[in-house]
Design brief:
Blueprint lengths: L16 H12 L10 H12 L4 H11 L3 E4 L6 H13 L6 E4 L2 H4 L3 H14 L9 H4 L1 H10 L4 E4 L6 H10 L3 E4 L3 H6 L5 H20 L5 E5 L9 H17 L4 E7 L4 H21 L6 E7 L9 H18 L3 E4 L11 H18 L8 H24 L4 H11 L17 E4 L5 E5 L7 H17 L4 H9 L5
């Protein structure tokens, strides 16, 4: 395996038109629907047809009203089912925002397999895919789905190669895309180089930046979901800040950043506050004062209870966190997460439970909490230490710094599947359910931070007779909560 140092260089510099066109031409030549893309026509379509039904306007209106937006995930192989389902999610589930979740085959660029699955789905009248294959249907059909929606639509998927389906979705009328140069590569790609993941994300970001410059209103949702289980809050904050800095350099002006809740109300509320604070601070420091940043939560991403009623309890608990943290939006889960691909009916259940909790939590807040302030203090110190180290390693260039930081273990994500992650840092829950570093590896933390985490873990370590790995295994399996 070649080291990161031997891979093509990547820098945090805005792509010029020649580089953007060359990358897009090569990308779109990989499947027939790529020939339908015309960037000038897409910008015109967004200005004339999509108009104000977009994510940036939705975020702005929600902030003015003090409202938390609800966004379900939804994807199906059949067009009519998509249209019907999106309407029901709004009319019955009160969704404020809508989603096209991309199918796995399209995300992996396995277009022929996806095409066969679409044909089989149409023939049999049931979906053979776990998402909406916009790249297979092409621009016109995707626009028909978007124009039937009652709310702004986002494109979603988790992959280190998001360019093709995101291009078709933005052409089809989507106005936000989740993406991450870091979290997707580290969470779902076993062998992708960090530099390659950054370059692929830069294409999407430059596409959104170009559209913004040409009158479209589009947003980038930066993911901080660095694993499918517990996440140290400072890891998520670092990921969110870096994603915004990388996207903003490509001209993205409207950002959403999502925090994956860990199930400790105090720690999660503190982390969301620090995420909001540091994304703003570092964006301003880099000269991106004009960026608008919305901060949301993703309901639990770990193992879901297979029991439907308990799953609704899980969804409701996470909603309390969002309400207390005054999040801008919630990515809503379904009580069916524990036993299969969610249906529209299950997704509506999740939306209703979430909405009910928000109604009950109206006006309530955590004020002057010493516990929240202490958590925020340590999360801020940890995140700042890593971010400053990245800037130093890259001599001010965050793309260069990120590649070098992963190579040295200055950044790493516990439980990552990617071979370029050092894999030395470990985390576990303390007795109160907060996520602590069990081993900080080569992360640039001082002794006080390390001792703080160890002290908080002490009672659980004693309960397992000092067996650290038993502690980790329990928490990965979600046996504690």
């Amino acid at each position: 395996m070649r080291s990161l140092r031997e891979r093509p260089p990547v820098r945090n510099e805005r792509w010029d038109d020649d580089r953007f066109r060359a990358y897009q031409d090569a990308l779109l030549s990989s499947y027939r629907t790529g020939a339908e893309i015309d960037m000038a026509e897409i910008a015109d379509y967004h200005r004339r047809v999509v108009a104000d039904r977009n994510f940036p306007e939705a975020y702005r209106a929600a902030r003015e009203q003090g409202k938390i937006l609800l966004q379900p995930r939804f994807g199906h192989a059949l067009v009519d089912y998509m249209i019907e389902g999106m309407r029901e999610l709004v009319e019955q589930g009160t969704a404020d925002l809508l989603t096209w979740s991309c199918d796995t085959y399209t995300r992996r660029l396995e277009f022929e397999i996806a095409e066969e699955a679409v044909a089989r789905s149409i023939e049999e009248g049931r979906s053979h895919l776990n998402g909406f294959p916009a790249a297979i249907y092409g621009v016109d059909t995707t626009r028909r789905v978007a124009e039937a929606a009652l709310r702004p639509v986002a494109g979603r998927g988790a992959t280190g190669t998001p360019g093709f389906y995101n291009t078709i979705m933005v052409a089809g009328g989507a106005t936000e895309f989740n993406g991450s140069a870091l979290s997707f590569a580290l969470n779902v790609e076993a062998r992708q180089a960090i530099a390659s993941a950054i370059e692929n994300a830069q294409y999407v970001d430059r596409m959104l930046g170009w559209l913004t410059e040409n009158g479209a209103k589009v947003s980038k949702e930066s993911s901080t979901i660095v694993s499918g289980t517990i996440v140290p809050p400072s890891c998520a904050v670092v990921c969110g800040v870096l994603e915004i800095l990388l996207a903003a350099e490509q001209g993205v002006r409207h950002h959403g950043v999502l925090y994956p809740v860990n199930s400790s109300i105090v720690q999660d509320v503190a982390a969301i506050g620090v995420l909001r604070e540091l994304t703003r601070t570092y964006a301003d420091r880099a000269g991106h004062e004009d960026c608008e940043i919305a901060v949301g939560i993703h309901q639990w991403l770990g193992p879901f209870p297979p029991d439907r009623d308990r799953a609704l309890g899980r969804i409701s608990f996470d909603t309390v966190v969002a309400a207390l943290a005054r999040a801008d939006k919630i990515l809503v889960k379904s009580p069916e997460e524990g036993f299969g691909t969610p249906t529209k009916e299950g997704t509506i259940e999740g939306l209703k439970a979430t909405r009910q909790v928000l109604d009950l939590m109206a006006g309530q807040e955590l004020t002057h909490s010493a516990e929240v302030e202490e958590e925020a203090h340590y999360i801020r110190r940890e995140a700042t230490a890593i971010l400053d180290a990245v800037a130093e390693l890259g001599d001010g260039d965050h793309a260069v710094g990120v590649v070098e930081a992963f190579d040295q273990g200055v950044i790493e994500f516990p439980f990552s599947v990617n071979e370029n992650n050092r894999g030395r840092a470990l985390c576990a829950r303390d007795a109160a359910g907060a996520v602590r570093y069990l081993d900080t590896g080569s992360l640039p933390f001082d002794r006080e931070i390390v001792e703080f985490h160890r002290r908080r873990l002490q009672s659980r370590l004693e309960a397992t007779a000092g067996d650290e790995y038993e502690l980790v295994i329990q928490d990965i399996r979600a046996e504690l909560r």
